[in-house]
Amino acid sequence: MNNSNNLFSPAPVTSDAFAELLQTSDRMLRSTPRGFHRYLYPQIDWTDRLVCIKGARGTGKTTLMLQYLRETFGVGSSAALYASLDDLWFATRRLKDLAVYLDTHGFTALFLDEVHRLPDWSVQIKNLHDQFLSLRIVYSGSSLLDIERAEADLSRRQATYTLDGLSFREFLVLEGVDAGAPVPLETLLADHRPIAAALAAKTKILPLFERYLRSGFYPFHKEARSRFRERLRATVNQVLDVDWPKAEPVSAATIHRAKRMLLVLASSVPQQPNMAALWRELGTERNQGMKMLRALDRARLLCLLAPHPPKLKNLSAPEKIYCGDPNLAHALAPRTDIGTLRETFFASQLRQGHTLHVPAAGDFLVDSRYLVEVGGPTKTFKQIADAPDSCIAVDGIESGWGNRIPLWLFGFLY
Fold first, then answer.
1. Residues 313, 182: one domain?
2. Which of 23, 26, 40, 403 is the most exposed place for a label (fewest CB within 10 A)?
3. What is the number of structural domains in the chain?
4. Which domain holds residue 397?
C-alpha cells in the first residue's frame, strides 16, 4: 500500500501500468449519464487549481466529476485523467509517481475519487498542489473529512464544496417533470402561490412527494427501486465501517456503539435528548458519546440542531436530533411518524445553504430570522402567533395562502 512503513519499494508508473489506469478512466467516462446535472455542478469553479468536493456516500460525487471531465475533455483525452484511490492499482504505486508521469506527458487535470482512502491524504494532496503547478486537481471525499483539522493546511489552498442528496426539485426532474430552476428562500416565501400553481399544473405533486420521502433523496433510487431500503442500509454500514476509520482514528468498539446510537435515535427522533440517559444506554461516557454524535452529523446520518438563543448550561449538546434525511428515517426505524418525516424533510432541505436552529417557540429558526412551524393541513399559528417573519410549512396541500406554504415547496431551494 501507499505507506512509508511498507516493506517493499513502490512499483514504477510505466506506460503499460498507466495504460491500465487510463482504460479504467475511459470506461467510467463512457458509462457516465449525461443530461441531468446536480445543483452543485454550475456552482463549482472548475478552473481552480485545487477543488475539494465533499459529501455523503451515495449522493453523486463521482458522477459530478465524471460529467465535467467528459463534457470538458471528452473520452480518450490525453489531458485529463480520472482515478479512484480505492483502486487496487494504488496498492503498489504512489500517487506522487502518477503525478510525475502525468506532468511529464502533458496532462493538465487529475480527478481523484475516494481521497479518504489515501494514507496522510491531506499531506499528499498538499504536496501535489505545491509541486505540480501545471496540474489542476479535483478530488472528492467523505463528508466525514475534517478539512480544517487535517494535518496539512488545505483550507487556504483549495475551494471546498459540499454535495447534499437530491432536493425534491431534482427528484422531479429525474422523474421527467419540468421543475424549473431553484427558488431562493426569500422568493419562495413571498411568491409561493404562483410558484406552486405553476408546478401543480404540470403533475400530481403530492403522490410524488410521498415517494420522495420514502426513496427519493439518493440518486441511486432509480436503479434500486425494489431494494432501496437494503441498499441504503448497506450504504450506512459502508460509511461507518469503511469511511469513518479512513477519515480519523476510531476503534471498532466505537463504531459498534455509533451504530447502536444511530438506531436508537432513528426510532425516537425528533427529540430533545436526555444525553445522560443516552450515554448510559450505550455504555459510554459523555466525551466519547459527543464524538460519536458529531461524527454521525458530519456523515449526514444525523442532523443536530442547536438552540437559539444558546443555552449557557450546556453549549455542546444539541437541542434536537433528526435523521439526516427522510429516506434514512424510513430505512432505519421500524415505524416512522408522519410528523417526524415532515420535520426531517424540512431540515434536510434547509440544511443546504441555510442555518437552522431550534427556537423557543416553533419548530425551526432559519438564518436567525424566519420562524417556521411544520405540520399538517389543520396546523394553526397558535405556537408562533404574532411572531414576525413567521410561516407554517403545511403538508398535504398543493397550494397555500398567506403565510401557509406547502411543505413540498421547500424542496425547491436547490
1. yes
2. 23
3. 2
4. 169-412
